[in-house]
Amino acid sequence: MSLIKKDFAILDKLVFRELLYIPAVSFAFSKFGGLAYLMSIFFYTYAVLMDIFNKDDKNNAESIINSLPVRKVDIIKAKYSLIFIFVIIGNVVFFILNYILSKMPIPYQYIHVSIPLVLLATLYIVLFNSICFPAFFKLGKDKAKQLDFILFFVTFFGLPMLEKQMRNPSILSIEKITDYFMSMSQVSFSLITVVLIIVITIISGSLSLKLYSNREF
């Protein structure tokens, strides 16, 4: 818990600036519906988590923490916990702003968000960070920034393209996948998504711990 408090403390006023990503992205992509929700939550969590790693690198926080009687597994748990904490914060802010913006005389379409969509967004955010975190823990954020850069732009350009392709009935493979998931009940889809989130987090966390334990400071 103290490690999580440390990360919140170093964010300081930046956390409020980064919250602006949510209304900005929601407004810009509101015509895309659920995709606007997914992208706004993703960009918010991305900005906050990357700021934390950047500040850790800048302040040499890892070396300081590792000189204290703190277990590496607790450091890993704290960082992965932040993913879910900021996803929750992002969702709360999104739902409030989504309602407020829809009532204002501006060209904004209310975005309907279901529980499966919330879980799907969480799954994508977990998957993204589960790829980045092991590299960060092994090399440090600065040395692993190329991976971060590539994955970010894959998300920025890839999600709208994927959403467009999924609407194209001529893409047989995508159509089959879409029909399959659409035929599932919300409970089944949600359960599968939750299991994937847990499995991916455990695998990535275990890899991060292994790499971090062998890292020299």
- In helices, the fraction of residues equals over 70%
Let me know the number of strands. Answer: 0
Order of helices and strands: HHHHHHHHHH
User: How far apart are the first and last residues' alpha carbons, in Å?
Assistant: 23 Å
Helix-strand makeup class? mainly alpha
What can be said about the biggest beta sheet?
A: none
Account of the protein in words:
This protein has 217 residues and is mainly α. Helix content is 80%, strand content 0%. The chain has one domain. The chain has ten helices and no strands. The longest helix is centred in the middle third of the chain and has 31 residues, at 72-102.
Secondary structure: elements and pairs:
Layout: H1 2-11, H2 14-19, H3 21-28, H4 34-58, H5 61-66, H6 72-102, H7 115-139, H8 145-166, H9 172-183, H10 186-213
Helix pairs in contact: 1-4, 3-4, 3-6, 4-6, 4-7, 6-7, 6-10, 7-8, 7-10
What features would you highlight for this structure?
217 residues, mainly alpha, 10 helices, 0% strand, globular
